[in-house]
């Protein structure tokens, strides 16, 4: 794809998103309520861990600020992924109801059409994740653990993390072309794995750690880069590994998606 083609599809995607936003903002109260509730749920999850860490000081050497950093990076990466590709996670509905057929006949790539459906502005998660990230970074700066470079590095990690989470979500959704019902699989590959990786992987046995690094690589979203950014336990090459992991995951998931589309059978409804 050359630059002019990329710019064309980017402008088209922007127009499709604008239309999706206008349709969702017809119900402003629902949008505000959903944003507030989502933020409260996220805050409650972190507060449970914060209470434990506040009492015991640290878990296997990881402080409250460090755990907060892992939690915030994962939250913000997920927020970016679900904002720009919400309905990738909800592909099951399209398969069961036959709605994917409508996207197949549109004069745009199916992935582009799917990503622009029901565009979600996840304001609650964005504010909550940003607050926890700022709190964690400022706390570690006061202690002299990190310097100002942690900010641009964190932005880089959040973006690569969003790509990795999108890739995992897309690969999981693609399995639906064979089994149709993918909710239970998503509970494992997206929800459970992401929740586990919100905390240091040193908490888990080696077999589970290996799964979270290689089978479902959510560990590359926050834990692996944090070893360098927060603890200086490895060189800057770790960030290159994370970037390569994101590129490889994206390439494999897109290839799997294109292959899965060739196996799609309409419901006929």
From TrEMBL:
Pfam families: ABC2_membrane_6 (PF06182). InterPro entries: ABC-2_transporter-like (IPR010390). Keywords: Membrane, Transmembrane, Transmembrane helix. The keyword Transmembrane applies. It comes from the Bacteria. The chain crosses the membrane at residues 31-53, 59-76, 121-141, 153-179, 236-257. This is ABC transporter permease. It comes from Marinicrinis lubricantis.
């Amino acid at each position: 794809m050359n630059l002019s083609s990329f710019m064309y599809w980017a402008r088209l995607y922007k127009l499709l998103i604008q239309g999706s936003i206008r349709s969702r903002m017809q119900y402003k109260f629902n949008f505000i309520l959903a944003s507030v509730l989502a933020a409260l749920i996220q805050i409650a999850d972190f507060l449970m861990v914060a209470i434990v860490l506040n009492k015991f000081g640290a878990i296997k050497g990881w402080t409250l600020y460090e755990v907060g950093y892992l939690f915030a990076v994962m939250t913000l990466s997920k927020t970016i992924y679900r904002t720009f590709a919400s309905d990738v996670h909800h592909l099951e509905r399209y398969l069961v109801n036959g709605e994917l057929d409508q996207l197949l006949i549109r004069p745009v790539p199916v992935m582009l059409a799917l990503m622009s459906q029901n565009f979600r502005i996840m304001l609650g998660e964005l504010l909550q994740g940003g607050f926890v990230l700022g709190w964690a970074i400022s706390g570690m700066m006061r202690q002299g653990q990190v310097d100002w470079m942690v900010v641009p590095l964190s932005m880089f990690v959040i973006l690569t993390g969003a790509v990795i989470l999108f890739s995992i979500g897309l690969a999981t959704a693609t399995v639906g072309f064979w089994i149709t019902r993918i909710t239970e699989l998503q509970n494992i590959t997206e929800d459970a794995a992401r929740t586990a990786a919100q905390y240091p992987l040193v908490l888990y046995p080696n077999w589970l750690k290996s799964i979270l690094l290689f089978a479902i690589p959510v560990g590359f979203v926050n834990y692996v880069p944090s070893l360098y950014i927060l603890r200086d336990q490895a060189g800057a090459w770790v960030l290159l590994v994370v970037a390569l992991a994101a590129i490889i995951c994206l390439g494999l998931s897109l290839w799997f998606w294109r292959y899965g589309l060739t196996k799609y059978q309409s419901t006929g409804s």
